[in-house]
Amino acid sequence: MAHLGEANLLAVREYMINASQGLKEKPAVSKDLLARPARRPEIQRMFLPNVGPAAIAVALPGDLNYTFDAGDCRLRTVWRGDFLDCWAYYKSNGKATATPLGTTLWQLPADESLQKRVKFLGYSVDAAGLPTFEYERDGAQFREKIVAEGKNLVRRFEVTTTKPVTFTLDPATTCSSGTVLNKLLTLTPAEAKSFTLTLRLL
Amino acid sequence: MITPLLFLAAILAAPKPADVAKPAAAADGWDKAFEISKVEVPAGIDDQVGGLAFLDDGRLAVAFHRGEVFIRQTDGTWKQFAEGLHEPLGLLPDGKGAVLVMQRPELTRLVDTDGDGKADRYQTVCDSFGMTGNYHEFAFGPARGPDGALYIGLNLASSGAGIFKEIRGTWSEIGKATRENLAAGKTGSAGRMYGRVPYRGCILRIADNGRGPTELFATGFRSPDGIGFDSKGHLLVNDNQGDWRGSSPLQVVTKGSFNGHPASLVWTPGWNKGEPLALPVPELEKLRTQPGGVFIQGELSNSPTQPAVFPASWGALAGQVVFGEMNAARLVRFVGEDVGGVHQGAMIPFLDTKALRNGNHRLAFAPDGALHVGKTHLSWAGNNGIVRIPAPKALPPLIESVHLTAKGFEVRFTAALDKASLTPALRSFRYKYHSTYGSPKVDELPLESAWSLSADGKLLTLPLKDIREGFVHEIKLAGAKSTDGRELLGPIAYYQVVKK
User: Is the Cβ pair B105, A110 closer than 8 Å?
Assistant: First the structure.
């Protein structure tokens, strides 16, 4: 605008001040112009409610979504509906969590004591876009892939271990093999090589 | 030709009337000497740049705010390489088909194992640090050292917000604010910036290109956005003006060093002095490593960013370091030298032109020498997109270097200067080291020099009696021109004397 000269600029400025007298400033538009439906599957690491800060959200084909917490290496929440509204986070500097859209069907409470027993190694993504999480727990090597089957969430495990592997089962979860005693599932190293946990959802 | 409507829109978009009233900047000397053009970014994304680098095969890889990594193909189109990352703020190539990305929760190696151009492995390289969920716990890097190790920088949390109920890492009880209060958003007693989980405020080293063990390398940072190595292997890490940061410092980081912000001292092995924020300042002053350079607040940089090393195509600047700056439309050069075993030097404004715009966050030189600058704002002062600045055929008149001698300073120029245009104005000053946010310039001393210009017009000798250790020495050459009448661009240098 340099070629207009300062005098012209000042005149326009004066006009703008006069013309805008008595007018109220419109609130800033706060709408995610880049919002889109989730690609399913889709993976997004994000600050999320009811989990630790190193969370990984996944939208599965269909309408189920879950959060895997890389801090304690556990499936933590499952919800049905659209995926995430991350606008509160994206529009700022991270001073907000994203909102899972839909109905929460299942979640586990925090247990920070688990952090010392696990080591998160990352995930691989298959041709369809589904992640397989890799982590160590109590020295055993875990690979876990979570898929939707009808109304259920099926967690497929491959565990390399020399010792038995245990899970505390919640009432909604059943196992393809192993022995359950007082909600404690125990799998021998041979059983742990390949098994599934099925989470029945409403 | 500007239509009236567009013109009005432009006026409305101007942030402050005060800016409008100022004479608009004419095409300046920088504009004439350098071509700054926009690089087209992938469509449909938020083009705030967190990481930017050229791969070994010459393609440009960029990490964006919403967690995508794109690679620009040789035909100029962009192809998505990865997605779903959590605020990536650094990217480093890692051989064929792989890049390292620093995201909030971890350093990750993204690997395309099947050669289809998309990463299919997101391998955790380092997540052995805590996170409280506080927004300010950004993570920066990695920088690869001459030792083959990777270096990352971890921010402190800010009292601008509390923490999550559930955190990662072991909570440190050292500090006035309780975890419960912080989780409830009550940050009053936390200290302006706080680090209550490992190793916030620290630089970590991960041996063997990320495949070896992680170690705590250095403490004392607040917000180390810029981390990189110079051509001689010095690890350069800058920090942002704030508490304990009178003006943004450039730290030349060595193993075990404490770099000034006290909060992270608690992670020092064997720390037994309690709350570091309560230690007397003289004790902290004894512990800290002085900055080797200072980004002068308001004049050079308020939020310095990534360092990059000029390649050979930049002539006399080759091997020197250039930093980005978030708040102003400017970059900053650092010309360092070793004096008495200390690396220190001069900060000089570079590309100080409105044409550059602000938000200059990530810097990388293309194989053809063109400097690429990725921009961001994260809701602070800043911008978005990528600009490209080719190496000029010939450098304009610039301050090439500043050298401290036993007698004073020697200032070298890239062109012969006209002696009649020289009126060097010299002074020294420093900043307070204290918990208050920022510092005025204090202990100012005007300096007199019986200066002389070499016969070829390229070397200004400034004999000085009063060179003071721990002070910035300002050398101002306003109005200086070359013998052929061109303006000396960036006619000021700020040399931080740690050792004389």
Answer: no
Given pLDDT bands bounded at 50, 70 and 90, which one contains residue A30?
confident
Average pLDDT over residues B205-219: 98
The domains located in chain B, with CATH, are: 35-389 (2.120.10.30), 399-497 (2.60.40.1220)
User: How large a percentage of chain B has pLDDT more than 90?
Assistant: 93
Contacts A–B by Cβ distance under 8 A = 134
Question: What is the rounded (10 degree) CA torsion for B88, B357, B322, B364?
Answer: 50
pLDDT digits (tens, 9 = 90+) for B112-136: 999 999 999 999 999 999 999 999 9
Q: What is the pLDDT of residues A141-171, one digit of tens each?
A: 999 999 999 999 999 999 999 999 999 999 9
CA distances from A40 to A104, A126, B369 (A): 18, 13, 41
* Cα separations in angstroms, B382 against B98, B159, B246, B374, B377: 29, 22, 22, 11, 4
pLDDT band at B65 (very low <50, low <70, confident <90, very high): very high
Give residue B319's region: left, alpha or beta (phi > 0; psi -120 to 50). left
The nearest CA of chain A is from the CA of B443 a distance in Å of: 37
HSE of B356, CA atoms in CB hemisphere, 13 A: 32
Chain A nearest-CA distance from B55, in A, is 22
Q: d(Cα B21, Cα A16) in Å, to the nearest integer?
A: 13
Q: Assign A67 to helix, strand or coil.
A: strand
Residue boundaries of the structural domains of chain A: 42-199
Q: How far apart are the first and last CA of chain A?
A: 62
Look up tokens 């909060």; give the residue: B263
The answer, yes or no, to whether residue A131 has pLDDT greater than 70, is yes
Among all residues of chain B, which has the CA nearest to that of A116?
B169
* Ramachandran class of B346: left when φ > 0, alpha when ψ lies in -120 to 50, beta otherwise: beta
Which of B114, B123, B166 is best to mutate for the A interface (most A CBs within 10 A)? B166
CA distance B470 to B430: 7
- Is the ipTM reported for this complex over the cut 0.90? yes
Alpha carbon B329 to its chain's center:
14
Q: For B116, name the nearest residue in chain A, comparing CA atoms only.
A: A127
What does the alpha-carbon distance between residue B456 and residue A150 come to, in Å, rounded to a whole number?
Answer: 83
